[in-house]
Each structure stands twice: as structure tokens, then as C-alpha cells.
Amino acid sequence: MTDQPVLLDVHNLVKHFPIKGGFLRREVARVRAVDDVSFAVHRGETLGLVGESGCGKSTTGRTILRLLEPTSGQVWFDGKEVFKLPSRDLKQLRRDMQIIFQDPFSSLDPRITVGESVAEGLVIHGIGQARERAERVGQVLSKVGLHPSHMQRFPHEFSGGQRQRIGIARALVLEPRLIVCDEPVSALDVSVQSQVLNLLRNLQQEFGLTYIFIAHNLSVVEHISNRIAVMYLGKMIELATRDDLFRQPMHPYTRALISAIPLPDPTIKRERIILKGDVPSPINPPSGCRFHPRCWMARDICKEQEPVFEQKAPNHWSACHFAEEVST
Ligand code: SF4
After folding, report:
1. Quick one: which atom of ligand 1 is closest to the CA of 303?
2. Which ligand 1 atom is nearest residue 289's CA?
3. Contact 228, 242 (CB under 8 A)
4. CA of 310 to the centre of ligand 1 (A)
5. Is residue 170 part of a domain?
6. Ligand 1 in contact with 233 (CB < 6 A)?
7. Is residue 210 one of the residues assigned to a domain?
8. How remote is the CA of residue 324 from the centroid of ligand 1, in Å?
9. What percent of the chain stands above pLDDT 70?
10. Helix ranges restricted to H, 144-210
11. Buried (b) or exposed (e) across 199-238, using 16+ Cβ within 10 A?
């Protein structure tokens, strides 16, 4: 997939949330949700974006789409600089870049029918007349495994998995090129998860879609991703092809995440790495390597010097002073 042209290019993306306090409501601290993150996504690929809750993965996805305004950095989508686009071009960009949310129920308006909900994007963008829109919505509902007659129903009449299919239909109806899938299966039963993952994979093949697939669980992104990026406390700490990442992780945090995935064969044992402590606060991240208070490989340099996120092997980036020793 990395032989395909780059569709999305993210450079030094930063998103901080100011915390205001005192009588004058001055900024007293900042939540460093995304702190200098760079990566590229190639046309037609799925880039998995993984990390614990609060690591900045969802904020990264939403800032790329300009659902949140960036603090700094640049994002190029198909050669256009997203953060500098005037509002008329931004409208086209919103067609090209869509999002699927984690909780399909709260992202659907319970007062309007599924047909109206899926057609909303078409109305906003002034696409087609009422009849053409209804036809298009019916086609898209069929594509996501629902029936066109479901248009007349309301969200509460559907199961969680079906509601997520409606969420996918809402994104798909505008014929986007990139979809940010923000934990799209995390709220679903395991049996339904694989159905929705298969649907996303089939739609990708049929429509040549590019995905950023966000999840807190490495096992969810394992089967759908071409490459996987791991985030920790606002930083990207590893990025590699799925096979390289699992075969030879080059960051201790990734190795710990892999060790937590249950193996299908119970006779095979894998050493489970239990990380000590909790994720530190993104308001006041640790000095040097942000992972050092929890890292079993940490040495003195790790507390003082922040490791650079750099290529350690072909197409394999890591931010660890001792990346080559992680898998030995
Ligand atoms: Fe651990 Fe040091 Fe590597 Fe950070 S730089 S992950 S503390 S070994």
C-alpha cells in the first residue's frame, strides 16, 4: 500500500486545550492532547491508530477533519493544505473526508427517520432533488446491509450493529475518499464487531476508500490495517506495517500492547507484560521520554532526553532510544 500515492499528509500536528482559571479566566495550564504528530496515509490503505484512552488518537482524527481547530501544524489532503482552505473549499473537503463515530446512537437524531438522517449530508451539500436523494439513500442502505424500506424507521427501532451500519451509510452517501473511523466497533458485541469490520473492508474494496481506523485495542485494528501507528500521551511512538509491528515491535509500549492480546491457541504461551502505574496526565507529561515512568527498559538518558520519532528500519518508525533492543 505504501507504493500508492499519499492522500493525507500530517506534519507536526499540535492540539492543546487551554485550561482557564482565576478571576480573569487566564490560561493556567494546557492539556497537550496531540503534541507534534506527523504521518502520511496512502490512497486505498487503512492506517490503524491505537493507544489507551486519552492518548490523543481521537483528537488527532477530529483535528485532521477540522472538527477541532489545530493549535499548529499542517495537514495536506490530496495536495491541498486543509487548515488554510477558504470556507467554500472546506465544504468540498467535508464531502471528501467523513467520520464514523463510536456511539451510533448518540450520533443519530432520535426524532428524525433513518432516511432523513442519511440524506442530511446530501441536503447540506445541495445534492439532488428529494426523489434522487431518496433513491441514493435506498442504494446506500442496501450497500451497508440494510433494506431501503428502513428509511421510514427511527433509530431506536434498530440494534447497535444496525445503527452503526446507518452511521456508515451517513458517511458513505457523500462518496468520500477518506473516512476516519473513530472506534466504530468499540460499543458493539464481539460477534457484531466482526460483521461491521467485514462490511468496512468490503466497502473499501468496492469504493477504493482510505481509512484511518482508531481503536484502543490493538486486536481490533490488527485484521483491518495495512499499517499501524501507536500513540502514547499525545505522541506517536511507533509506526510500521502491521506484519512488522507484530513481528518486531520497536517500542516497549507496543510490545506491552501486543502481549495483552489473547492467543487463539491456548497451548501457546506468550509472556504478558504488565505496565506499572497509570498513564500520566497530559497536562504535565513526564520529562524526556513520556513513557519512562512505566518502561521496564528505561535508563538515565530516558528521563532527560526526549527520543526522536525516526525511521529505525525500512518503513518502521519508533521514538525509543533503544528501539533495536525491544524485541531481543
Ligand atoms: Fe523506554 Fe527509554 Fe525507550 Fe522511552 S526511550 S520507551 S523509557 S527505553
Report:
1. 7
2. 4
3. yes
4. 14
5. no
6. no
7. yes
8. 11
9. 99
10. 160-172, 190-207
11. bbeebbeeeebbbbbbbbbbebbbebbbbbbbbbbbbbbb
Query: Does 197 reside within a domain?
Result: yes
The predicted-structure confidence for 2-31, as pLDDT tens digits, reads as follows 689 999 999 999 999 999 988 888 989 999
Q: What does the block give as the cell for 45?
A: 490503505
Which ligand 1 atom sits closest to the C-alpha of 301? Answer: 2
pLDDT score recorded for residue 282:
93
pLDDT band at 64 (very low <50, low <70, confident <90, very high): very high
Q: Cell for 29? A: 495550564
| Digit-coded pLDDT (tens) for 178-205 | 999 999 988 888 888 999 999 999 999 9
- CATH code: domain of residue 56: 3.40.50.300
291 lines ligand 1 (CB under 6 A): yes
- For residue 1, is pLDDT > 70? no
Q: Which domain holds residue 84?
A: 6-96+176-326
Domain membership of residue 192 (yes or no) is yes
Q: How many independent structural domains does the chain possess?
A: 1
Whether 289 is in the pocket of ligand 1, judged by its Cβ within 6 Å, is yes
The mean pLDDT of 55-68, rounded to a whole number, is 95
Nearest CA to ligand 1 atom 7: 292
